[in-house]
Design a protein that fits this description.
Layout lengths: L2 H12 L1 E5 L4 H13 L4 E5 L5 H15 L4 E5 L4 H10 L3 E3 L5 H9 L3 E3 L1 E2 L2 H9 L4 E4 L2 H4 L1 H7 L7 E4 L7 H10 L4 E3 L6 H6 L2 H18 L1
Parallel strand pairs: 1-2, 1-9, 2-3, 4-5, 6-7, 7-8
Helix pairs in contact: 2-3, 2-11, 8-9, 9-11
């Protein structure tokens, strides 16, 4: 089995892809350690600030030293230049808010998992043409579970993961999984501004354990 398939299987097994960005290198490392301690084995750092690349390199260093079974990916990749920079930095997979065929080609040439973001059936079709195995529905808080229910039969067998509008709530999670998603992206509802600014790592640990347990029940 290729690494690409192993990472996809790990996301499906976990049922959740936590994601965040923070300017602070120290804070980013502590959040990563907390998520790992709570049971996370696949994680997305987002390319949303000036410190994203140096912070990501540090996270890779910490992962290699302390968490060898963790898959560490990079999100918010919109350009080939960004894709190449983070591939060189050691990313295991790429997540994007858009469909960019050049980024897809870069990932496909090295057999790397590429997860593009889509909002319409046309975008989903283009993502499939570019060999997307897993598609992020984004922004899911605008589209909602009914969108997944409405289009899943048009794209039989396609794996979908909503990001945005997913909460640590059993009813919310069950609604998403019943609609047909295979996993959920979890950003600020899990790793809140308070967690990051105040260093509330025990709270994050508890929230992550709860989210993973609720997802296991909801799948």
């Amino acid at each position: 089995m290729s690494n690409k398939h192993k990472i996809l299987d790990a996301i499906l097994e976990q049922g959740m892809l936590p994601l965040f960005y923070q300017d602070s290198e120290e804070g980013s490392v502590e959040i990563l350690r907390t998520l790992y301690k709570a049971g996370v084995r696949v994680f997305e750092y987002t390319n949303r600030g000036k410190s994203a690349l140096p912070n990501f390199k540090k996270l890779v260093e910490i992962r290699d030293a302390e968490m060898p079974d963790l898959y560490l990916g990079i999100g918010t990749i919109k350009t080939p230049a960004d894709a190449n920079a983070f591939i060189q930095a050691g990313t295991d997979f790429i997540v994007a808010p858009i469909v960019n065929a050049e980024v897809a080609d870069i990932a496909n040439k090295i057999n790397m998992l590429w997860i593009p973001g889509c909002m319409t059936p046309t975008e989903i079709s283009i993502a499939q043409a570019n060999k997307a195995m897993l598609i992020k529905i984004f922004p899911a808080n605008i589209l909602g579970p009914d969108f997944i229910s409405s289009i899943k039969d048009l794209f039989a067998g396609q794996l979908f993961m909503p990001t945005g509008g997913v909460e640590i709530d059993e009813n919310n999670l069950k609604t998403w999984f019943k609609a047909g998603v295979c996993a959920v992206g979890m950003g600020s509802k899990l790793i809140s501004k308070d967690v990051m600014s105040k260093g509330l790592y025990e709270e994050l640990f508890d929230s992550t354990k709860l989210a993973l347990a609720l997802i296991k029940k909801s799948k």
